[in-house]
């Protein structure tokens, strides 16, 4: 029997990068291959130039003759199915011409153009002679082009770009040159504390902002971003989501590599494969105790309801656990910090004695102070990246998400689970648009993390939620159906029995 008999053939999304080699491996072909690997995508490479380069700068450039670039392109494309071509350093007009001919000849489906002209150290990588090739030949083939401010300015005849408004106009003008989507990266924009990029799809502008990570290790961010976009597109991710995923990948990699020391120059590389180490930490760290199954019946407290029913927070928490809650969150919106810590310390002790995890809503400082098992943060609370940095790998971090894009970011940023909602209308949390069962399903289907549904859920509708049967929908998070009740134990027990029945019949 042959070795492959009986086993299904496997297919891997495939990006071909056409770019220059960076001997220091922070940028260029080396960054492209690492970014694609991190995204789980195969990356072949056609080398257009070899640079002698390190963290100090570019010491030399050796351009590959266009005939040999052609030979490499034909070797790959005549043999392998390439989903996306991503271009980086294209050192001569001749290379651009042959590349464009071959893209058309082999009918490559998707083209991502990173119009690399100047290195991060300020060295010229593609001279002005290539500009016409970019404008007249490559941009009209591009599904997306990703210039930084200097490159956008060069593509537009040297105009000055100083504001977000200028970036929007530049994105529109570059779209008019033929690229179907444009991402103008504002990392160099003066006077802005966030890294703001403008994405334009020909109809709508999206302002994508993320925290500016202060580090010397930014060499290769442009190549990485474009390659990660290419990798996501190769997997079939829609364009805007691919851009958002790439941006959050770069943010996370920079944060993880913030203090990395490789080389002595001013611009160091970062670690594209940080996730492998993060997961290593997860496996070894104390939070390996976190099991997604603990999301089945997630009790979220409310001190107004406790006051109404004349019980202390400790009594409410204890009753919910005795009724069968599998995880508890202290959601305290009114108490002052000292009082909150006081309550939290008592509740941590109760939850530990039952072996049930206790998370703190919003307040990473309180979670640290009382040694809770973790935090739950919303989209406008402390970002997951920073919460993780403060709490370390051993704590549980949950984040609220209403959309697939937020779910993708939650995973890239290192969250452990997603709270998704409000699913149904509720008076417990005001000004919180509901997403319905369809919104919940969309998040569950796209999420790589376990999901707990929240908002207006109780015994009467829990089944409609769990019936969505998305494999990563692990349970329901509930406030009023447990705590705005005369008997917390009885109501928790009732809901727990229903959930257990649903889970058992599902098996
Ligand atoms: C499990 C769970 N999911 C979602 C939320 C909501 O968190 P957030 O969006 O930060 O809103 P507040 O709870 O802070 O009002 C949650 N608390 N728990
Ligand atoms: C905290 C929160 N986040 C989204 S909806 C919600 C409130 C859920 O409360 P209830 O279970 O009483 O509807
Ligand atoms: Mg919050």
TrEMBL record:
Family matches, as Pfam families: Phos_pyr_kin (PF08543), TMP-TENI (PF02581)
Identification of the protein by name: Thiamine-phosphate pyrophosphorylase
Pathway given in the UniProt record: Cofactor biosynthesis; thiamine diphosphate biosynthesis; thiamine phosphate from 4-amino-2-methyl-5-diphosphomethylpyrimidine and 4-methyl-5-(2-phosphoethyl)-thiazole: step 1/1; Cofactor biosynthesis; thiamine diphosphate biosynthesis; 4-amino-2-methyl-5-diphosphomethylpyrimidine from 5-amino-1-(5-phospho-D-ribosyl)imidazole: step 2/3
GO biological process annotation, one example: thiamine biosynthetic process
Reactions performed catalytically: 4-amino-5-hydroxymethyl-2-methylpyrimidine + ATP = 4-amino-2-methyl-5-(phosphooxymethyl)pyrimidine + ADP + H(+); 2-(2-carboxy-4-methylthiazol-5-yl)ethyl phosphate + 4-amino-2-methyl-5-(diphosphooxymethyl)pyrimidine + 2 H(+) = thiamine phosphate + CO2 + diphosphate; 2-[(2R,5Z)-2-carboxy-4-methylthiazol-5(2H)-ylidene]ethyl phosphate + 4-amino-2-methyl-5-(diphosphooxymethyl)pyrimidine + 2 H(+) = thiamine phosphate + CO2 + diphosphate; 4-methyl-5-(2-phosphooxyethyl)-thiazole + 4-amino-2-methyl-5-(diphosphooxymethyl)pyrimidine + H(+) = thiamine phosphate + diphosphate
Keywords: ATP-binding, Chloroplast, Kinase, Magnesium, Metal-binding, Multifunctional enzyme, Nucleotide-binding, Plastid, Thiamine biosynthesis, Transferase, Transit peptide
Record's subcellular location: Plastid, Chloroplast
Alphabetical list of InterPro entries matching this protein: Aldolase_TIM, HMP/HMP-P_kinase_dom, PM/HMP-P_kinase-1, Ribokinase-like, ThiamineP_synth_sf, ThiamineP_synth_TenI, TMP_synthase
Free-text function comment from the UniProt entry: Essential for thiamine biosynthesis. Bifunctional enzyme that catalyzes the phosphorylation of hydroxymethylpyrimidine phosphate (HMP-P) to HMP-PP and condenses 4-methyl-5-(beta-hydroxyethyl)thiazole monophosphate (THZ-P) and 2-methyl-4-amino-5-hydroxymethyl pyrimidine pyrophosphate (HMP-PP) to form thiamine monophosphate (TMP).
Broad class of the protein's primary localization: plastid
GO cellular component, one term: chloroplast
Every Pyridoxamine kinase/Phosphomethylpyrimidine kinase domain range: 22-265
Family as reported in the entry's similarity comment: Belongs to the thiamine-phosphate synthase family.
Lineage, broadest ranks: Eukaryota, Viridiplantae, Streptophyta, Embryophyta, Tracheophyta
Keyword Chloroplast on entry: yes
Gene Ontology terms, MF aspect: ATP binding; hydroxymethylpyrimidine kinase activity; metal ion binding; phosphomethylpyrimidine kinase activity; thiamine-phosphate diphosphorylase activity
Names of required cofactors: Mg(2+)
Domain Thiamine phosphate synthase/TenI, residue spans: 297-482
């Amino acid at each position: 029997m042959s070795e492959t008999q009986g086993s299904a053939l496997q297919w891997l999304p495939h990006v071909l990068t056409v770019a220059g080699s960076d001997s220091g491996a922070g940028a260029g072909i080396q960054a492209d291959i690492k970014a694609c690997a991190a995204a789980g995508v195969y990356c072949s490479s056609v080398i257009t130039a070899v640079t002698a380069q390190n963290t100090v700068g570019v010491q030399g450039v050796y351009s590959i003759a266009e005939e040999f670039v052609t030979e490499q392109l034909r070797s790959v494309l005549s043999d392998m199915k390439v989903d996306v071509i991503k271009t980086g350093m294209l050192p001569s007009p001749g290379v651009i011409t042959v590349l464009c001919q071959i893209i058309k000849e082999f009918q490559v489906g998707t083209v991502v153009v990173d119009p690399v002209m100047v290195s991060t150290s300020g060295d010229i990588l593609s001279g002005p002679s290539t500009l016409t090739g970019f404008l007249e030949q490559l941009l009209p083939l591009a599904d997306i082009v990703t210039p930084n401010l200097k490159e956008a300015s060069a593509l537009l005849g040297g105009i000055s770009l100083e504001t977000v408004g200028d970036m929007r106009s530049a994105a529109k003008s570059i779209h008019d040159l033929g690229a179907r989507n444009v991402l103008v990266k504002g990392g160099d924009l003066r006077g802005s504390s966030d890294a703001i990029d403008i994405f334009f799809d020909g109809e709508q502008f999206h302002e994508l902002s993320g925290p500016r990570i202060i580090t010397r290790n930014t060499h290769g961010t442009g190549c990485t971003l474009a390659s990660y976009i290419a990798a996501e597109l190769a997997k079939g991710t829609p364009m805007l989501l691919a851009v958002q995923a790439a941006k959050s990948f770069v943010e996370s990699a920079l944060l993880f590599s913030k203090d990395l020391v490789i080389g002595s120059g001013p611009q160091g590389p970062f670690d594209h494969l940080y996730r492998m180490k993060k997961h290593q930490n997860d496996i070894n760290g104390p939070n390996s105790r976190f099991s997604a199954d603990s999301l089945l019946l997630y009790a979220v407290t409310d001190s107004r309801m406790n006051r109404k029913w004349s019980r202390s927070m400790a009594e409410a928490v204890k009753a919910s656990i005795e009724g069968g809650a599998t995880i508890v969150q202290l959601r305290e919106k009114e108490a002052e910090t000292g009082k909150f810590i006081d309550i939290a310390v008592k509740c941590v002790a109760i939850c530990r004695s039952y072996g049930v995890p206790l998370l703190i809503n919003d307040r990473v400082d309180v979670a640290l102070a009382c040694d809770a098992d973790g935090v739950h943060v919303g989209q406008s609370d402390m970002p997951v990246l920073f919460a993780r940095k403060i709490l370390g790998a051993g704590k549980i971090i949950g984040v609220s998400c209403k959309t697939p894009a937020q779910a993708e970011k939650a995973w890239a940023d290192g969250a452990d689970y997603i709270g998704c909602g409000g699913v149904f209308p509720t008076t417990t949390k005001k000004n919180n648009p509901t997403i319905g069962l369809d919104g919940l399903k969309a998040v569950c289907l796209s999420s790589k993390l376990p999901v707990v549904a929240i908002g207006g859920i109780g015994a009467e509708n829990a089944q409609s939620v769990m019936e969505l049967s998305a494999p990563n929908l692990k349970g329901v998070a509930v406030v009023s159906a447990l705590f705005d009740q005369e008997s917390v134990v009885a109501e928790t027990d009732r809901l727990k029995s229903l959930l257990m029945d649903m889970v058992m019949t599902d098996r």
